[in-house]
Structure formats: structure tokens, C-alpha cells
Amino acid sequence: MGTTPRWIVQLESFNDLHIPLWRIVREDGKPMDGDTLCAALLEEGRARTAEEEVRVADQLIAERNRVLDALPCPVHGQCVPHALNAIASLQAALAAVQKAAQALEARLDDIEPHINNVCAISSNHGIPYAGPTWAQPREVLKKALAVAAALLPTEAP
User: Fold this and answer.
1) DSSP letter (8 states) at residue 6
2) What pTM did the predictor assign?
């Protein structure tokens, strides 16, 4: 870059309809021919494209570094193979927790009628039920299961 002369757009005059006529000259004031102008425009376009590519690449590298910093390798620091292994381990652990939480949710569903019976019997005797309730923890568990389902890769049918 820098070999092609820069250009300047100058107002040359107005035509009969008062429309401005422009001319393109080099920085030194000499008229610029079409070939030189085309070369200058192409060079500037390549420079802008290269700048954009560098900016996007820098953003991608910064994001990659954030991931690698979040999953450090005790041996190498930022290490892609160990980060991928860590992600796979985390996915497996999350899948196991998800399975256990689903089993717990099913068990809670199974005992819910019995808890309701205890509540009804207590109310019949004039004593309001004051035992444990699981409504709020179950809602938290359901939300956590939804998050886990979104994070885990889906299996192909």
C-alpha cells in the first residue's frame, strides 16, 4: 500500500443547469487518469477490507482466550485440547446431574399424593400442616433442568 497516489475531489465548475462538475486530481494537483484512479480505489478498498478482517480476527481471538481462561490447563495454561476435554467432562457431569434431578423430580411426583393425604388428615383434626413443602425447590429444580437441557448437545435421532 502507499504506492498509488492519493486523490482529491475538487469542484471544477457548474454546468448550465447549475449542477456541480467535479474533477479528481492527485495530491500534487495534477489530473488523475482513470487507470490511476481505479488502482487507488482498489488499494483503498483492500486496505479497508484488511482492517476489517484484522478487527474480526482480533475479536475471535479475544473470545477464544476468554473460553481458554475459563477452562485453564494446569500444565499449559491456555490449551485448546485440554479445554475441549474439560468441556466434554462438564457436559458429562451436567448430563449425570440432569438425570439424577429428573429421577428426583419423578420421586417427588410419586410421593405428592401421600403428602397431600397427610395435609388433609392434619386439617381434619384441626391442626394445619406445618411440615416441609417442596414447591419452591421444585421450581428451582425445573428451571435448572431447562437450563441443562439447553446447554447439553441434542442427540441425533
Assistant:
1) P
2) 0.50
User: Exposure of 81 by Cβ count < 10 A (0-12 exposed, 13-18 middle, 19+ buried)?
Assistant: exposed
Domain count across the chain? 2
Domain presence at residue 27: yes
pLDDT tens for 63-87 read 888 888 888 888 888 888 888 888 8
Dihedral class, residue 33 (left if φ above 0, else alpha if ψ from -120 to 50, else beta): beta
- Beta-bridged to residue 23, according to DSSP, are 10
For residue 77, is it within any domain?
Answer: no
Q: What is the per-residue pLDDT across 116-152, written as a single tens digit (0 to 9) for each?
A: 777 777 767 777 766 667 777 778 888 888 888 887 7
User: E strands within the chain?
Assistant: 7-14, 20-26
**Residue at 14 is within a domain:** yes
Give a yes or no: residue 37 inside a domain: yes
Full domain range(s) for residue 113: 92-151
